[in-house]
Structure formats: C-alpha cells, structure tokens
Amino acid sequence: MTQRQRLFVGGAWVEPDDGHYEVVDPATEQTVGWAPEASRKQVHAAAAAAREAFGPWSRRSPEERAAVLARAADVMQRNLVPYADLARAESGATTGTARGMQVGVAVARFRRYARVEPAERPLPPQINEAGPFGGAAVLGALAVRQPVGVVTCITSYNNPWANPAGKVAPALAAGNTVVVKPAPQDPLSVYRMAEALQEAGAPPGVVNVVGGSRPEAGEAAVDCPDVDMVSFTGSTAVGQRIAEVCGRSMKRQLMELGGKGAALVFDDADLDAAVAGIGTTFSFYSGQICTAPTRVIAQRGVYDRLVSRLSGYARHLTVGDPRERATVVGPVISSAHRDRVESYVRLGRKEGARLVAGGERPPCERGFYIAPTLLADCTPDMRVVREEIFGPVVVVVPFDDEEEGVALANDSDYGLIDYVWSGDVARAFRVARRLRAGGVGVNTVGRNMEAPFGGFKRSGVGRDVGSYALHAYSELQAIVWPG
C-alpha cells in the first residue's frame, strides 16, 4: 500500500506536520501503509477542538449520543472483513482473532454503550436537627454522573480495535470528547474507527485521532492543558511517567498496565481445562496480552503431568502465516520485540529454568515468529517469573500446599488477573478471595464483560468495562435540596 494516512482533527482530515512513517506487517515484513506523525502543535489543536466540542456534545441527550454509537457499530459491522484484514496485517493477529476478538469486540462494545443507563441516582433523605444554620429539615439528594471533559485515550498495540473501542465508546456515551493517540505499531485501524464515527454523525471535534511513532505526540496528548483525563493501556513504566505528569495538574487517570497472571493449579484440577486455559498464552495473539496466565504455580502432585501436557500442547500448535486457516500462533509485533522475548528465554535458562518446549525460531522465511515456549522448574526469584515477557512464554513454579500457593501467587509486583483451577469449588473461591488481583478466573480464562476490569498494585489504577466504565469516565456530582 502506498496510501498515506492523514490525521483526524476537528472533523477534518489533515496532513501531518512531521511526515509519515512505515507500518510493517509482522508476518511478512512488508509495508501495510504509512501512518502520520503529528506535531505537538497538531495534538494541542486536536485537544482544543475536543474542548470546543465538549459543551454541545455533553448537553446532547444520552439517547442522541447513544444513537451515534449504534450507527458507528453498524458501520463497523458492515465493514468487518476489510477492517479485520487491515488489523491482521498491521498487528499480526490471526484471521479469527482479527474478526472475532478485534473488530467483533469493538462492535460489541459500541453496541453495549449505545444502551442508555440512568446518570442520576436518588439518595436516602437525611433528617438534620436544628442548629446554628437553621431549623430542623429533611434534605433530599441526588448523585449525578457528569462527564469529565476532554479525555486522552492512549491505546495499546495488542488490539487496535477492542482496546480503543473500550475507551472511546464509554467516554462518548458519558458525554466526554476524546483525543485518541493510537499505538505506533498498528495505528491505521484507529483511523478507520474515526471514519466510522464520522459516518455515524459524530459532530466535528468529538473524536480526534493524532498518532506518531515518537514520544512527542503522546507527551503532548498527556500534558496539554485542554485535557482533563488520560486513559492509558500499556506498560507500567510508561504508566508511571504519565501518572507523574497527570499528578502535577490533577488530571484524572485510568491506567491498565502490565500483568504477570498467576495460574494456581491444584492436585484435583481438571487438567484438560487447565491446559486449554493456560495454553491461550501461546495461541491468543502470541502471548501479547496482559491478562494471560503466564505464571503457572502447580501443586507437586500434578506438577509433572501438567508440565508434560503443556509441553505437548505447545509443540502441536501450528505457527505461521496468520492468513492461513490452520495457523494458531502468529508473529509478535516487531523484530525488536521478538529479540526482547528471546532474550528472556535465554535469561531463564541461564537462571536455571528447564526448557521443555520451544525456545527457537520457527522455520519461516519472513516474519517475527517465536515458537511457543515452556520453562519449567522455575523459582520465585527468577526474572522470567517476576517480569512481564509479553510473548508466547509460560513459566512453571511448583508448590506444596494452599498457603504456599497463595503466597507465591501474591509474590508479584503485578495484580491484574489471576486464575485458580481446582475440583474443590469451595477451595477455589476461598483462594480467589485471597489473591491480590483485580480479577480471578475460577476454572476458566473467560471474562464476564459486565464485571469490573483493572489491576491491583502495579497493574493499574481504576476500573472499567460494563457500567464501571461509565463511572470511570464520569465525575460524581451531589445535588442537595430541602424537602
């Protein structure tokens, strides 16, 4: 493709001040397209456009805003195949993942927030006794959700449709306007989302997309005085820097950061279910997912069988071109990231881990591929156990009893989503409540998309998904009156 993408600012498609950069297909290493490099001035212009649009948009009825989201979902559904083809090309996802988990989830999220929910909640009346401010009175009250204002949405590369949709849709539904800074690796899909919103009738300035491969665009989108809130998905290190900037000007933050999900597997677990769940680390977007159960903590009675079965599972997964129907594991996002993941595998072996499966590059002529890799006999102090690798790599640590298993699971800087596999449901739920994680899957890696999502510790700040996202993108206002 030779098409050069333009920025979307104030309802207009504008040429970037700083030129374009190449977007590369991780599977073929060929050019997918050319993405725009926004200047700091253009990012601030996008925020100014969002600020100007905020008043009229926030005063529209919730039903009018919902109608725009519903029409945008229709546009995305109608274009699902070409949108998914683009997402597959720039992210390296398999066809099934691009259609179902990327564009398909984005459509579902826009439809979800096209459902109008009450923004006001009556509170119990309060009886105030007579005092220096007057006689006794009954005071009524309302808790009202008000939009925050202009929201900067900084999205991750591992899902160029679902991740921005999970920010943009609830933010707009709540009455905010947005400035979207897409991930530099696969930004083109986010501009298609902007086109869908424009076609759906989103007024100029309500949605703006300004990307770039250098840090300047993201920095400008965070520190701009017109921005009231930053919603970020990405690494903990970058999230910390954003939080420092937001703290200086008291900007609201929603942070979905790193993960190192613990998967406790007890002796009485259903191994078929555990292996299939843990195996998603290898197959779902090549392990580039913060919710993946990458840190397996297995009870000794089942340890050897689990390692053996995970090894067989990993070895039989088809690695290759994500366009092929048989492919289960596609490439990672870039050559640099492949090198990073491979360096962790070497480090794990040096630290004393046993390489059970993978560890080598598949025989592909082009593309940034890594074979699904399993490291066993790990110890809690190893860096491969403690640090987020973000690739198709699973590490396994043994434990003896419930107390030790819980302690090992909680011995982490992260706390996004953990997992428990046990045939004793009472124990599974007891253990789940003791885990210091924002979410716990009991005998499943599935998610309920109305449940709150977010992390403990260094895995993030705040909660979104379902109704919780509407609260995340709102300020609560109290209105009080005499009864």
TrEMBL record:
- Which InterPro entries does this one have? Ald_DH/histidinol_DH, Ald_DH_C, Ald_DH_N, Aldehyde_DH_dom
Aldehyde dehydrogenase domain boundaries: 13-478
User: What are the protein's UniProt keywords?
Assistant: Oxidoreductase
**SUPFAM superfamilies given for it?**
ALDH-like (SSF53720)
Q: Where are the transmembrane segments?
A: none
* Pfam assignment, any one: Aldedh
What protein am I looking at? Aldehyde dehydrogenase family protein
The organism named in the record is Streptomyces lannensis
